[in-house]
Write a structure and sequence with these properties.
Pfam families: BcrAD_BadFG. This protein has about 325 residues and is an alpha/beta fold. It has eleven helices and ten strands. The protein has a six-stranded mixed β-sheet with strand order 1-6-5-2-3-4, sandwiched between helices. The chain has a four-stranded mixed β-sheet with strand order 9-8-7-10, with helices on both faces.
Length: about 325
């Protein structure tokens, strides 16, 4: 590609860029944060993990977990503590499309020489295809799809959030599993393996289930998804129906991003990968192995932006 990759939000202190010795790639979602620390040539030196850094769960929490994961990575690289002023950070975060949260994240950055913020779907598509054109359907705690087209343009679908959208995600599956379990408790539908699996987590009486739902949040509902898929594999019909609904939703997402089905397709996230065997033959035929993950894509974002700013592109 001959032009800089587009960024939603950037912050770079030009006078500080000469001090950059390390690149930091962040993949942040509703369940956890993964950080890769690399040298200026892009060679990964260490990795770290911490709690969620989706911006919808709070900007302060996002920065806290990013810094925790970065220090783990720095320790692995023998650089602890890594000086932030010598780091350029690229972050692919869930919720980065919400302008107010993105601006707050940039405004409160703790001293990096540069911060580049994108949604995690775009850094995932960059990492999966090595910065080249392609499609990614990512379904884990949430769901989002991204396409990077040959002309450098891009598109996004889904990623509307777990309350109103994110079809096919872990939270989406969990919400529907809970609805089924509640109906089974009422006697509105027969008791199934799926209902029992939910009760084992949330409780076997009305009061316990109401309390669990009130406290669960996105991560809590997503934690039910592996149980949905486990009992589906064991032959439970309601769970199999939910699994098929998720497959259909993710296939629709892939088609919306590349209607001509011309670009390579990579799957990301625990739910998408677990559903692969149930996708149609055409979808499976288009799937390619990801070259890297969202944190790798964030590192590509940093390298591209810094090269452009320093005139080396």
């Amino acid at each position: 590609m001959n032009k800089p990759l587009p960024l939603h939000h950037t912050l770079a202190r030009a006078e500080a860029l000469a001090a950059v010795r390390y690149h930091v790639g962040v993949d942040g979602g509703g369940t956890g944060t993964r950080v890769k620390l690399a040298d200026a040539a892009g060679r990964v030196l260490g990795q770290g993990e911490a709690g969620p850094s989706a911006l919808g769960q709070g900007v302060a929490q996002a920065w806290r977990h990013i810094l925790d994961a970065l220090q783990q990575a720095a320790g692995q690289a023998g650089l602890s503590p890594v000086p932030l002023a010598e780091c350029a950070l690229g972050a692919g975060l869930s919720g980065a499309n919400l302008l107010a949260d993105a601006q707050d994240f940039i405004r409160t950055q703790p001293g990096f020489a540069a911060v580049l913020l994108e949604n995690d779907g775009f850094t995932t598509v960059l990492g999966a295809h090595g910065g080249r054109p392609g499609v990614v359907v990512a379904a884990g705690t949430g769901t989002v799809g991204e396409v990077l087209r040959p002309d450098g343009s891009r598109g996004i679908a889904s990623g509307w959030g777990w309350i109103t959208g994110d079809e096919g995600s872990g939270a989406w599956l969990g919400l529907r599993a809970m609805g089924h379990a509640q109906q089974a408790m009422d006697g509105r539908v027969p008791v199934s393996q799926l209902a029992v699996a939910v009760w084992e987590v949330a409780g076997r009486d009305r009061e316990s289930i109401l309390a669990w739902c009130a406290a669960a949040g996105q991560h809590g509902f997503a934690s039910l998804a592996p149980r949905v898929l486990d009992v589906a594999e064991a032959g439970d019909k309601p769970a199999q129906a939910l699994r098929m609904q998720a497959v259909v939703a993710l296939e629709q997402l892939a088609h919306s991003l590349d209607p001509q089905e011309e670009l390579p397709l990579a799957l990301a996230g625990s739910i998408a990968k677990r559903l692969l065997a149930h996708f149609s033959g055409n979808i499976r035929a288009r799937c390619v192995e990801s070259q890297g993950d969202s944190a790798d894509g964030a590192l590509l974002l940093v390298g591209s932006a810094l090269n452009d700013k320093t005139g080396t592109r």
